[in-house]
């Protein structure tokens, strides 16, 4: 694995996928960065936002990413819904949730009407 090119300044976080502790500078906004070990998307709390709420939303986002990796669309929708409810201003949460809902809609079987049999 190639070491990250980022400097050691930045915010602490733990990757929910590979479990490595990282210290990198996230983008502001939206407050994300990729894990230098596995490439998973990490979310960082906004320093001006309510930290416990944002941390909980980020936890739900990480769980959704794991569910998406396993193609568990129902679980991903549930976690993304919770993340979007906690951080309604986060466009990334809402866009991902909409994509998952579209995927679920595409996977649902369409109902067919039976043809009426003549009496």
From TrEMBL:
InterPro entries the record matches: TPR-like_helical_dom_sf
UniProt superkingdom: Bacteria
Protein name per its UniProtKB record: Tetratricopeptide repeat protein
């Amino acid at each position: 694995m190639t070491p990250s090119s980022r400097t050691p300044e930045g915010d602490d976080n733990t990757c929910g996928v590979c479990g490595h502790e990282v210290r990198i500078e996230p983008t502001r906004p939206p407050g994300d960065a990729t894990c230098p070990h596995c490439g998973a998307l990490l979310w960082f709390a906004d320093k001006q936002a309510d930290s416990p709420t944002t941390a909980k939303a980020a936890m739900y986002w990480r769980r959704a990413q794991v569910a998406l990796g396993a193609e568990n669309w129902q679980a991903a929708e549930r976690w993304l819904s919770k993340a979007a409810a906690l951080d309604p201003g986060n466009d990334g949460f809402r866009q991902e949730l909409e994509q998952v809902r579209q995927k679920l809609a595409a996977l649902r079987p369409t109902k067919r009407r039976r043809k009426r049999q003549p009496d």
